[in-house]
Amino acid sequence: MESLESQLKAKARELGFGLVGITDAAPPLSYEAYRQWVADGHHGTMSYMARSHELRADLNILLPGVQSVVAVGAFYRQPEELPADHPKIARYALGRDYHKVLRGRLRMLDRWLHAEEGQGRICVDSAPVLEREYAHRAGLGWYGKNTMLINTHAGSWFVIGLLLSTRKLAPDAPAQGGCGTCHACIDACPTGAIVHQNGRWQVDARECISYLTIEHRGEIDPDREAKLDDWVFGCDVCQEVCPFNTVRPHQPGRAPVLTMEDFRARTWPPVEELANLSPEAWDTLTAGSPVRRAGYDGLRRHARRVLRTRI
Nearest-CA neighbor of 305 among 174, 204, 213, 181? Predict the structure, then answer.
């Protein structure tokens, strides 16, 4: 008879998840590193990262009696190249908000797993969980120098979701791999946000284009602003240059394309239109999109910055 774990993984794949694995609910080993990252100020103005640090130390705070963690990954690389005049928006944000998509699919997986016994809790980015570690422990990928989770066979174009469970499930082995001597992402980062400190590679959010175009509010230091290139929302540079995502001659690209149609890119207007959106047009355009996170003023501000650099 097929094991519960095998059935669970088959169900996850049926729901569109390209990656799935299981680990235990032991406290995260990266917790102290996370605290040090915050203490060093690398979280920038994301004060919630500091306020919630104690909640990230023990999954039992989120789900009393938790024993297992099911980690899933959903691919979002587009099947076709975007037009040359398309605004530079991080690939994960081109379609429907992954928070909503993953929560909906994980809710179905939760109902399936706990139909007869146990309880679950869904965590997709917004919950105070060190998701990347649990996904690593579940075998989805290993830590790259750019701090992204990289799967040796599938690259890094995937978003992560977790399903906490009070059921005892057999864990998978952690993912194995590494960047070796490659430093393509470090060399390519326009702002030098990838730094080596305290014995590990990490991202200083204060220098990261994704942070500056999404999380940061208000004006940006002119020296930093000059390095943001044409990015309107987010940044993909460190993933674009990663060998595990690159299509090589005579070898298929390692990164699979999206398996959920929700992530297919919607039609985005050119930068000129984004710079002059009315509140009503912005509300319609960003409904159900991660781009909404930047806010009305933020999206227009970054679009106008891009236009200034083209003059």
Answer: 213
Map tokens 């120098």 to a residue: 145
Long-range contacts from 266-273, C-beta under 8 angstroms, 24+ separation: 266/94, 266/95, 266/96, 268/86, 268/87, 268/89, 268/94, 269/87, 270/85, 270/86, 270/87, 271/87, 271/230, 271/232, 271/303, 271/306, 271/307, 272/303, 272/307
What is the Cβ-side half-sphere exposure of residue 191, based on CA atoms within 13 angstroms?
A: 26
Two tokens, residue 47: 């004060």
Among residues 125, 172, 221, 283, the one annotated as catalytic is 125
pLDDT 10s digits, 218-259: 888 888 888 999 999 999 999 999 999 985 544 555 678 888
Token pair for residue 268? 């985005």
Query: Which of 139, 188, 154 is CA-nearest to residue 77?
Result: 154
**Is position 125 annotated as part of the catalytic site?**
yes
Chain CA centroid to CA 113, Å = 25
With DSSP H G I counted as helix, E B as strand and the rest as coil, what are the percentages for the chain, rounded to 5?
Answer: 35, 15, 45
Give the model confidence (pLDDT) of 75-102 as tens digits: 999 988 888 889 999 999 999 999 999 9
Structure tokens given for 73: 């990954």
**Which helix (H) or strand (E) is 89 found in, with range?**
strand 88-89
